Amino acid sequence: MSAENSGFISPTLGEVENGQVVEEIAKFVKADPDAYYKVVIGTDSQAKIIDGVSQVDYVTAVIVHREGYGARYFWRKERVVQKPVLRDKIYRETLMSITTASEMVPELRLAISAAKYDFEIHVDVGTVGPTRELIKEVTGMVRANGFDVKTKPESWGASTVADKHT
Fold first, then answer.
1. What is the CB neighbour count within 10 angstroms for residue 148?
2. How far apart are CA 79 and CA 94, in angstroms?
3. Which of 1, 99, 147, 148 has the highest Cβ tally under 10 A?
4. Crossing angle for the helix pair 135-144 and 86-111, nearest 10 degrees?
5. What's the number of domains the chain is made of?
6. Domain containing 30: what range?
7. What is the pLDDT of residues 50-92, one digit of tens each?
């Protein structure tokens, strides 16, 4: 497994280190302290064959949404040499989101009052299509780690924001 970059990319700020993401989220929240926020983490993937080798690009997005008034997001990409088996891809996507959340949420709770935001992990599975058989498994993984979870069509963090950069 090789990361293309060690930190995140912000469309607004460019490259930012992992710890800086929480600082930027806190700044965004403090800019309008009366608003309510949603912090979302989602991962999407895209299989490719490069020089005859099967690879999968995984993009994890961290989004802070000021409900009704815009958002900021950060993303990072990892390229993994693997065969594009759907179950493996969905499991890895989910685990990447859980890992990112486990690293960020404790810092986020120190920087921002939990009363100011909801936190969700968005997984790229839905009741229609081939991922329907995986819904119970991956939502169970997320909930077992103590996080709220959204699936398609409500999982825009994975299926729209992260997907934009795969």
1. 13
2. 16
3. 147
4. 30
5. 1
6. 2-165
7. 999 999 999 999 999 998 899 999 999 999 999 999 999 999 9
